[in-house]
Design a protein that fits this description.
This protein has 3 domains: about 160 residues, Nucleotidyltransferase, domain 5 (2-Layer Sandwich); about 280 residues; about 170 residues, Rossmann fold (3-Layer(aba) Sandwich), CATH 3.40.50.300. Helix 5 packs across helix 6, helix 7 packs antiparallel against helix 8 and helix 7 packs antiparallel against helix 12. The longest helix has 24 residues. Strand 13 and strand 14 form a beta hairpin. A 7-stranded parallel sheet has the order 8-9-7-10-15-6-16. A 6-stranded parallel sheet has the order 17-22-21-18-20-19. It has a 5-stranded mixed sheet with strand order 3-2-1-4-5. It is α/β, with parallel strands linked by helices.
C-alpha cells in the first residue's frame, strides 16, 4: 500500500444509533500512519453503561450485551484515546463527520483537528463505482475488511481505500495534480496537506488516465426493430391508450414518434439508460439538471471551500461536466449542486437545450413538461403531439411539479459564505420550530401566517430577494415567499415537515391537479395518455369532469413470459427458508423489514445467502449495486414505493413477492387531505390508486425478470374481500395465473436448521 507522506490517524466507531448524545459509542478503533507506513493499531469495546444495545445493532456489529462485561465506560478510556491523537495528526475516516459527531456526543470534540473523508475521495477517483459505502467498495476493490462488521475491520478497509485513492490520483498528469492542489489550498487543512503531499509525490507528465471518462453514461448496446406509432387524438379531446407490460413498449413508442412529437415519462434518466442505441431523440432535461457556466465560475472563484465543496470543485475541473449526470455526486454535494451550480429557466445553457429540442422527437420528464407549461416559452410548439407515458403517476408528479418547496438543507448550502442568507435560513428554521410545536407534520392555517414572526420572516425574505442571488437558492426563496403569502392558502395543501435525519421542509401543493392539467396541458396541446391496462375508463384522478376523451385501441404488443401466484398461506419464513434464485420481497412495512433483519441476517450470512434489507444495507444505490452482482440465492426486502424506482439489469430476478396490498398510507399529508373530497374515499380514491401501483410494480418486475419469472401475492384480502376479488381478476388479466399444489402450511426449517 502507498500512503501520502503525512501523519494520519484512521478511525472508526460502532454505535447504538445515529443521534449524538442520545446514542452511544460502543467500539472505537484507530490506526496511525507515519512516513507512509502503518505504525500502530488500537481497538477497544466501550460499555454503554445503563443504555441497551438495540437488537438490530447487535446483528449489524455482532457486539452482544455479554461482550460488554468488564469493558470500560467512555470516561474511563478517554485519556488513553486522547494520548493517541497527537497534535500533528490528520483524522481520516469513511463518512468521518458521523464518527466525529458521535464522539462529540460522548464529550470528545475532535472538530479542531484536520480531517479527510475517504468516501468523498473515492467519489472523486472511482467515478465508475455505483455506491461509495465501505462495504460495497470493499467488495469491488478487494479491500481487506476483517474483522467484518467491527470498527477495526472498517479501519483496515478505510486505510486500504485511502491508499487506492492516493494511487489513482498519482496517475493524473502533473498539471491536473497542480490544479487539485491549488483548489485544496482554499479548502480545509486536511485536504490542503493531503494534496500538497500528492504534488510532492507526483512524477511529472503523463497522459490523462482512462478512469476520468468512466463517469459518462452509455446507451445500451443493440438495436430494436419494433416500432409503435400512436396517432394524434381528435381536436379538443384527450386520447387514452393502453400500456403494455413489455419493457420494449416505450422504446418502440419513442422510435415511432414523429418530429413534432413530445414524449413525457416519469423517470427520463433511467429510461435513457435502457433505450437501444438506434433510438433517435432529443432529451430535454430540467434546468437544475444542467450546469450553469456562470454559477460554476462563481463557485470556483470562492476564496474558501468547505470540506464538501472542495471535492466538488475538483470534480468540476477534472470531469468538465455539462449536466449532473456527468459527475459522480456524493453526499452533501447534491445540495451544493442544487444551491450553487444548477442552471435555471433563464440560463443561456437551458435556452440552448430548448433550441435543440425544437427538431424533435423530444423526450422529457413529467416535471419538465409541467414546468414548461408554467412558463411563457413557446414550447412544446403549436400542433405538437404530447404522449404522456406513466400517466397513472401524473397525479403525483403534477403534485410535486406544481408545488412549492423550501428544503432547509438546500437553503443552508446556498447560504454558505452569504451572511444575509444565513440569517434568513436561521429565521426560517426558528419559525418552523415555533410553528410546528414539536409535531413531525403540521398543516398551515391562516393564523400561522398572521403572527409577528411570520411578518418578520416575510420582511427579511423581501430584503434577501432584492439582492442579487447568483445561485438557485433564489428558487427555494421564491417558493417560500409564495407559501408565506396568505392569499395563496386557498385551493392548496400547505404543511411543515420534520424528518428523521433532522432536516425540515415547508411545502405547498394544489388540492386538485386534474383541473390544472386540463388548464395547462389538455387545453393547449393534443394529448395522449398512456395508462395501465383496463384503466381507460378510470382516469378521474387526472382528467376532470367535462373533459372529452377518446379511447384508442390497445396496441397488440404481446405479453411478457411471467406468471402470477396467489399464495395467502405462505409466510415470510417460507421464502427465507429455501431461497431460490433471486427474489425481491416487498414487505408491508419498515418494521417488518427490521424484524426480518434481526431474526435472519446472521443465519443468512452463515448459510452463504445474500440478504439485503432496506434501512440496514445502505441506501438504494448500494442495495441495487450489491444485489445486481450477488450470486444466487439472494433476497432483498424493501417497500413497494422503493421498488418502483429500482434499477436492476434485465434478466436478474426470478420472483417478486408482494406481502401486502400496497395501499397509500392514510396519514400521508396529501393523500389524507385529497381523500376527504370523495364520497367513498376507499373505493373511489384508494383502490384505483392501488390498482395503478400494482400495474407499475409488475411492469418494473417484467423489466428485471428472467423468462418464466413469477409474481407472488401473499395478502389474503385478495380472496376474502370483494374489492380483493376484483383486484385478483385484474391481475390475472395482466399475467396468467400459475396453478400450484395447495400449501400445507407446515413450518419450514430456517437455513437448514431443525
Amino acid at each position: 500500500m502507498k500512503f501520502p507522506n503525512i501523519p494520519l490517524l484512521v478511525l472508526d466507531t460502532e454505535t447504538t444509533g445515529f443521534v449524538p448524545g442520545l446514542h452511544r459509542v460502543i467500539e472505537y478503533a484507530c490506526m496511525e500512519i507515519r512516513g507512509g507506513e502503518i505504525v500502530s493499531e488500537f481497538d477497544t469495546l466501550i460499555s454503554p453503561e445503563e443504555d441497551e444495545i438495540p437488537p438490530h445493532v447487535q446483528v449489524m456489529t455482532q457486539i452482544r450485551p455479554e461482550d460488554m462485561k468488564g469493558q470500560p465506560a467512555f470516561g474511563e478510556v478517554f485519556e488513553t484515546l486522547e494520548k493517541m491523537l497527537k497534535k500533528d495528526l490528520i483524522i481520516v475516516g469513511q463518512n468521518i463527520k458521523y464518527d466525529v459527531s458521535m464522539l462529540k456526543g460522548e464529550g470528545w470534540d475532535l472538530n479542531d483537528y484536520p480531517m479527510i473523508d475517504t468516501a468523498m475521495l473515492a467519489s472523486l477517483v472511482f467515478p465508475e463505482i455505483k455506491s461509495y459505502s465501505l462495504g460495497y467498495l470493499s467488495a469491488v476493490l478487494g479491500l481487506s475488511h476483517a474483522p467484518k462488521h467491527r470498527a477495526l475491520g472498517d479501519v483496515r478497509a478505510t486505510s486500504e481505500l485511502l491508499s487506492k485513492c492516493f494511487e489513482r490520483l498519482l496517475m493524473l498528469p502533473g498539471k491536473d495534480i497542480e490544479t487539485l492542489a491549488g483548489l485544496a489550498g482554499r479548502g480545509p487543512e486536511g485536504y490542503r496537506r493531503f494534496f500538497r503531499s500528492l504534488a510532492d509525490a507526483s512524477e511529472g507528465s503523463r497522459p490523462r488516465p482512462e478512469w476520468l471518462s468512466l463517469v459518462r453514461r452509455h446507451f445500451l448496446a443493440g438495436k430494436s426493430d419494433r416500432t409503435v406509432t400512436i396517432g394524434q387524438p381528435p381536436p379538443a379531446k384527450v386520447q387514452v391508450t393502453q400500456e403494455s407490460l413489455d419493457p420494449a413498449f416505450l422504446p418502440a413508442v419513442i422510435k415511432g414518434a414523429g418530429k413534432n412529437t413530445w414524449v413525457a415519462a416519469k423517470n427520463v434518466d433511467s429510461l435513457i439508460r435502457r433505450l437501444p442505441e438506434d433510438c433517435a431523440f432529443n432529451a430535454l432535461p430540467s434546468p437544475d439538471f444542467i450546469l450553469s457556466k456562470a454559477a460554476s465560475e462563481t463557485f470556483l472563484s470562492q476564496d474558501r471551500f468547505t470540506d464538501d465543496e472542495v471535492i466538488l470543485a475538483m470534480k468540476l475541473k477534472l470531469f468538465s461536466p455539462k449536466t449532473r449526470a456527468d459527475l459522480p455526486l456524493h453526499g452533501e454535494e447534491n445540495h451544493i449542486w442544487s444551491a450553487k451550480l444548477a442552471a435555471n429557466s433563464e440560463s443561456p445553457e437551458y435556452f440552448l437545450v430548448l433550441e435543440a429540442a425544437k427538431t424533435g422527437p423530444v423526450l422529457l420528464s413529467h416535471f419538465e413538461l409541467l414546468h414548461l407549461a408554467e412558463r411563457p416559452a413557446a414550447l412544446p410548439p403549436e400542433g405538437a403531439h404530447l404522449i404522456i407515458d406513466d400517466a397513472s403517476m401524473l397525479e403525483d408528479t403534477a403534485t410535486q411539479a406544481l408545488g412549492w418547496l423550501c428544503l432547509l438543507p438546500t437553503l443552508r448550502a446556498g447560504a454558505e459564505g452569504n451572511p444575509l442568507l444565513t440569517k434568513c435560513a436561521d429565521l426560517v428554521e426558528l419559525w418552523i420550530e415555533k410553528t410546528r410545536g414539536g409535531l413531525d407534520r403540521r398543516y398551515l392555517a391562516e393564523n400561522d401566517l398572521e403572527t409577528k414572526e411570520a411578518a418578520g420572516l416575510r420582511s427579511i425574505l423581501g430584503e434577501v430577494m432584492d439582492r442579487e442571488l447568483k445561485h438557485p437558492a433564489r428558487r427555494a426563496l421564491d417558493d417560500l415567499m409564495k407559501i408565506m403569502d396568505i392569499k395563496n392558502l386557498g385551493g392548496r395543501i400547505c404543511w411543515i415537515e420534520a424528518f428523521i435525519d433532522g432536516s425540515k421542509s415547508i411545502r405547498s401543493v394544489p388540492e386538485n391537479v386534474a383541473g390544472l392539467l386540463a388548464e395547462k396541458i389538455y387545453s393547449r396541446f393534443r394529448t395522449t395518455l398512456i395508462v395501465p391496462k383496463s384503466s381507460q375508463e378510470n382516469t378521474g384522478l387526472i382528467i376532470p369532469p367535462g373533459q372529452e376523451t377518446a379511447v384508442a385501441p390497445p396496441v397488440d404488443f404481446g405479453s411478457p413470459e411471467a406468471e402470477v401466484v396467489f399464495s395467502s398461506q405462505l409466510k415470510i419464513n417460507d421464502f427465507i427458508a429455501e431461497p431460490k434464485g433471486k427474489t425481491v420481497f416487498l414487505a408491508s412495512s419498515k418494521r417488518t423489514i427490521e424484524d426480518i433483519y434481526i431474526k435472519h441476517a446472521e443465519q443468512a450470512e452463515t448459510a452463504g445467502v445474500t440478504l439485503l434489507c432496506q434501512g440496514f444495507s445502505g441506501g438504494q444505490s448500494r442495495m441495487q449495486a450489491e444485489f445486481s452482482v450477488a450470486p444466487a440465492p439472494a433476497i432483498i426486502f424493501i417497500t413497494p414505493w422503493i421498488y418502483e424506482t429500482f434499477e436492476l439489469p434485465s434478466g436478474t430476478l426470478d420472483r417478486l413477492v408482494i406481502q401486502a396490498l400496497p395501499f397509500d398510507h392514510p396519514s400521508h399529508a396529501v393523500f389524507n387531505r385529497r381523500s376527504q373530497k370523495f364520497q367513498d374515499p376507499f373505493m373511489e380514491y384508494s383502490v384505483p390508486r392501488l390498482r395503478h401501483r400494482l400495474f407499475r410494480l409488475i411492469r418494473t418486475f417484467c423489466r428485471h425478470a428472467k423468462q418464466g419469472g413469477t409474481v407472488e401475492i401473499l395478502d389474503e384480502r385478495i380472496t376474502t374481500k370483494a374489492y380483493g376479488k376484483e383486484l385478483k381478476a385484474y391481475l390475472t388479466s395482466l399475467l396468467p395465473e400459475k396453478r400450484t399444489e395447495a400449501e400445507t402450511g407446515k413450518q419450514m426449517p430456517i437455513w437448514g436448521g431443525n
